[in-house]
Specification:
The chain has eleven helices and 15 strands. By secondary structure, it is an alpha/beta fold. The strands form three sheets. Strands 1, 2, 3, 4, 5, 6, 7 and 15 form an eight-stranded mixed sheet that branches. Strands 11-12-13-14 form a four-stranded parallel sheet, covered by helices on one side. The chain has a three-stranded parallel sheet with strand order 8-9-10. Helix 10 crosses helix 11. The radius of gyration is 21 Å and the shape is globular. The two termini are about 30 Å apart. The structure holds zinc ion. Zinc ion binds next to loops. The site of zinc ion has 4 residues, from loops.
Length: about 400
């Protein structure tokens, strides 16, 4: 079996049963421990984690023991919003390349390895029309491709003719949706993604593409998913679109630019999570590019400032906050950008270990995968990571 060693950016092959001395651990439930511990695992799962007794001889069982005494054991990271079918370099060229599936699949296998090498053991993919992410999910599940667990929406539900043509086929109206609903779910999905609004405008502060659905329409999609035990993620920005998503009862709001305080309060009441994806805006400013005009850069700065302030407010209001990058978007590289996103959350004013909790425990809840984001007896070794420093 395998374990992510983010400390060395490697995937380590380990036996199903073994023991190792580690430098300490961190997990949301137990907090940080910076003491040498003896870790044992059996059948691929954590079996014991104990302080080293003074009587412990490091050579007691030298054949089985691994040398991890400079590593901390942590739950693997989770990125709650990626697009495996996008390459973060050039959106339009990438879409042209979709005509050559073998090329895209080769890219995706590289991205998947990159995630594991950086300690990211699960990702939630926001979809693509050809179904590349759905295929990747199945290849990983079948053990054919190495990679993190992929929770995939397969394709998103958007209004035909509006934003989202690369994310899904698009539905004209509710009647068309009802006709095809059964098939849509039967093609396989882990979560339902609904496109509620268009994109934010980089050249127009507070500008957002139009809202695509009424509360009644959206609520019908949400009920169709919930009736099947499926969570709903909503792409929404701007006051109108975010309100529609909240009232329709989605489970998470993705992006959520121009969130208001009232909306945050409503989300807390309804236990709706927010995945604020700062990286697609922030990284353009962090890693300068000449692609945008000075007017666009000034607008992006205002948007970033507003988003970080709202994230801090959400944290203090106890709104569920997830960490998702929108990896695949321009300047948001797969795997690496999760560390940018965590930095942005810290920049917003959230303590680092709280951000760690969000990128593990809270993201696990957002993915609906409760075996993730934790370090307990019985946790699978391949859902953990070995990290160099915690703080
Ligand atoms: Zn997205």
């Amino acid at each position: 079996m395998k374990i992510s060693c983010s400390a060395e950016r490697k995937i380590l092959e380990i036996p199903d049963e073994g023991e190792a001395v580690i430098a300490g651990y961190w997990c949301p439930k137990l907090g940080l421990c910076s003491q040498s511990m003896l870790l044992t695992w059996k059948g691929g799962k954590v079996n014991s984690l104990q302080s080293l007794s003074p009587l412990y001889h490091s050579d007691s069982n030298p054949t089985k023991k691994l040398l991890w005494d400079s590593y901390f054991l942590l739950p693997g990271w989770i990125d709650a919003h990626v697009h495996l079918a996008l390459d973060s370099l050039d959106f339009h060229r990438c879409l042209e390349n979709w005509e050559e599936p073998s090329l895209i699949e080769e890219n995706i296998q590289g991205f998947l390895r990159g995630y594991l090498e950086r300690g990211i053991v699960a990702i939630r993919d926001g979809g693509d029309l050809p179904g590349f992410s759905w295929k990747a999910k199945n290849k990983v599940d079948e053990g054919i491709w190495a990679g993190p667990r992929v929770i995939s929406v397969h394709e998103a539900v958007s209004r035909a003719g509006m934003y989202g043509r690369f994310l899904g086929r698009g539905f004209k109206d509710r009647l068309e949706w009802r006709e095809k609903e059964q098939d849509f779910f039967e093609q396989g999905i882990d979560q339902l993604k609904v496109v509620v609004t268009g994109l934010i405008k980089f050249d127009n502060f507070q500008g957002v593409g139009p809202t695509q659905w009424t509360v009644e329409e959206l609520a019908e999609f949400v009920e169709a998913a919930h009736g099947r035990g499926i969570l709903v993620m909503a792409h929404a920005s701007g006051e109108t679109g975010i309100s529609v998503a909240i009232e329709a009862g989605v489970d998470s709001i993705e992006h959520g630019y121009y969130m208001t305080t009232e909306q945050l309060e409503r989300m807390r009441e309804k236990e709706i999570a927010w995945v604020p994806t700062v990286a697609p805006i922030g990284n353009i400013l962090k890693y300068p590019t000449d692609r945008y005009s000075s007017h666009e850069i000034e607008t992006l700065k205002r948007i970033l400032e507003g988003q970080l302030a709202k994230i801090y407010e959400a944290y203090h209001l106890n709104v569920r906050l997830g960490v998702g990058t929108d990896a695949g978007a321009y300047r948001v590289p797969h795997a690496e950008s999760l560390f940018d996103e965590m930095d942005w959350m810290v920049q917003a004013g959230i303590p680092k270990l709280e951000v760690f909790r969000m990128a593990t425990q809270e993201n696990a809840r957002i993915l609906g995968s409760y075996d993730l984001g934790r370090l307990d007896l019985g946790t699978s070794m391949n859902l953990l990571q070995l990290m160099k420093h915690v703080v």
